[in-house]
Amino acid sequence: MFLILAFVSLVAPAQDTSSDTIIAPELKEQELQEIVVEAPKVIHKADMDVYHPSRSAVENSRNGMQLLGNLMIPSLTVSDALSSIQASGQSVQVRINGREATIDQVRALLPETVRRVEWIDNPGLRYGGANYVLNFIVANPTLGGSFMSSARPALNQAWGFYMADVKFNAGRSQWEVGGNFKLTDKIKIYRDYTETFTYPDGHSLVRRETSRGGNMDNSMLNAWASYNYIKPDTMVFMAEFGLHGNISDKFIYNGLLSVSDGSDDILLTDSHGNNGTTPSVSLYWQQHFKNRQMLVVDLSASFYSGRTFSDYQEQLPRQASYLTDIHTDIKDRNQAYAVEADYVRHWQNSRFTAGLSYTANRNRSEYVNLAAAVFHQRQDKVYFFAEYFYRFNKWSATVGMGAQYTDFLFKESNQGNHSWSPRPQATITYSLSQSHNFRLSFTSWQSAPSLAETNIVPQQLDGFQWRVGNQSLKTADSYMLTFRYGFDIPRVSSSFGIRAFTSSNAITPLLQWEGDKLVTTYENSHGLQNLSFFLAPQIEIIPGWLSVSGYVQYRMERMRGTGYKCRSNAWSGNASVRLMHWGFMLSGKYMRSQRDLWGEKISWGENLNIIDLSYSWKEWQFSTGIIMPFGKYDQGSKSLSKWNRNEQHMRLDMRVPYVQISYNLQWGRQKRGAEKLINSDASTDRSTAGGR
Q1: What pLDDT score was predicted for residue 140?
Q2: What angle do CA 436, 401, 359 make, to 5 degrees?
Q3: Nearest partner of 275 among 605, 689, 654, 636, judged by Cα
Q4: What's the CA gap between 679 and 668, in Å, rounded?
Q5: 343: exposed, middle or buried (C-beta count within 10 Å: 0-12, 13-18, 19+)?
């Protein structure tokens, strides 16, 4: 399909798009040595791809998420309707002028203020092990204030998204207040589930579920306020306050369970969920010095107070008593504190960066169902790094070394672990010409055990399945090697490559029998390896009117653990098409999620497709669309364990038509919001209740 579209794009009549650029003259002078492709507005640098929004992309956007989608970066899957940004099925770290940000903050960006978007698919050491990084570079607007609002209700069920954000300026100061509300209330769900248990003596038991329906809630509220003071090229100060409220995150499922041993069918009810609030605060200081030096310091803290619950019941029809009646109720009071400092020094063809960060987590979990037993976990991380970038002729190279110290302790048992982990990283790039470049990169990172993986309190999942954590887990090391070739021809920009990944001691689930109980615990496995081949084209069929982009990946995986060896081969990808003219924009997206092998389970996220039609008029935008107009929504997993083989498909009633109205108002003379160059991570952990 992409080859056909590429051919069509070559024979389609050309149109002049030179007037679409919004690159400032000084930026053009600084970037004359880069590889510039006018149609897709992409500049390939040694360590990133830079996308400049066209005039039509800006005019057809009312927030930062819509603008990002209109850029059609090939390997990205962007959904404003679903509030998600992914690349190759993995998470993407988003930043604004170098400061780590949230999707809500990206959505609150005015499209007119975004001068370029930096796409980094091989992040350096300062990004803390991120898979991919998107960095929005925002310029100073000329207006003194702005108001942004949007409402997106569904037409057939209780689903929608609503937001508002306002900014005010006075001298060198800026105030911002905003909030949003996401509604998902009683969405119908269905589950296809079959499992086969094999006992140590060899006999097996098959259980098949017939869905009797259920529903899902996922409503949340976010609010934020910030103050910043900017003295250009000298000093920036910022204070941010935020509140995240998980109003209702609940799943209730009813099914009829048939068993192969001939016993009567069983009615089951499976429900789990959580709710709570997370206030947070961040203080930021950035100071410039002579000789192109800079020091950045960021402090942040957050506090989570909430409840996690799980209920599982099995009952014979027309019987009042229960065969199985399991209730788990956990109250968390978790705190996180972080501080990070970076030093950056620039020269004409090189850059040196060094940083140090400290993160502390203090977790307190009260098990209401276990006579209010209380457990405490302490976790501390120290990370420092140094990285050097140098460009010479057609070559450029980045080398760096980081180190992470992890220490965690469980107060009640006085048991814990600590470790030092090196984090080497290197990238080399060669530009054969303005249209062809090659890059080889090596990166590494560490993953510490989570609160759920180390929780030693036994949790019953159903009639004979249990889960218990492992406090002897060690921090896992991961390494990745990527080779990428990028090329640009008229109206076509593309890249393809190969990626190899290994984690010799990945933390994964482990199933084992203990008497008549099948227990899921966790171990440092014998290793996960995968090899991926990918292709990511972007094609301007009719410049300024019709364009397509996509990403296709084929991945082969191998996983080894105690008593098992598993393999998986699967393809994934996404495709987007956009047609816009006269203020109208018609877009379509298709997403097939990545299949992930982890332990003895293959899991996949959402397979989705979306169609959207919008019209922009002055400060307004009116849209209508439908989620899942074709096919079935599918999210699920497949267990390969010899003790429990199962396959689960979660079906949601996601054929959702919606309308959206957006309004942007700007006035006066506005300063740009202060944006951090670094962001310390003070994310609180939380418990996980049982659930089949």
Answers
A1: 52
A2: 115
A3: 689
A4: 30
A5: middle
Beta bridge partners of 76: 87
Separation between Cα atoms, residue 167 and residue 666, nearest integer Å = 9
Between 488 and 251, name the one with better pLDDT: 251
Q: Which of 168-177, 293-302, 342-351 has the lowest mean pLDDT?
A: 168-177
The 8 Å CB, 24+ separation contacts for 200-204 are 200/513, 204/260
Q: Which residues pair with 537 in a beta bridge?
A: 494
Compute the Cα dihedral for 481, 487, 491, 492 and give only its sign. Answer: negative
Please tell me the least confidently modeled range out of 447-451, 549-553, 687-691: 687-691
Q: Are 161 and 684 in contact (CB under 8 A)?
A: no
Q: Are 221 and 258 in contact (CB under 8 A)?
A: no
The number of helices, as runs of H, and strands, as runs of E, in the chain is 5, 40
User: Quick check: 385 pLDDT over 90?
Assistant: yes
Strand extents, DSSP E, 123-203 = 133-138, 144-153, 159-170, 173-184, 187-198
Rounded CA gap, 649 and 204, in Å?
A: 22
- Label residue 283 exposed, middle or buried (CB < 10 Å: 0-12, 13-18, 19+): middle
d(CA 114, CA 354): 28
The most distant pair of C-alpha atoms in the chain lies apart, rounded to whole Å, by 81
Instruction: Report which DSSP code applies to 80.
Output: T
State the average pLDDT for the chain.
Answer: 85
> Residues 305-320: pLDDT tens digits?
999 999 999 999 888 8
CB 472 within 8 A of CB 417: yes
Amino acid at 625: G
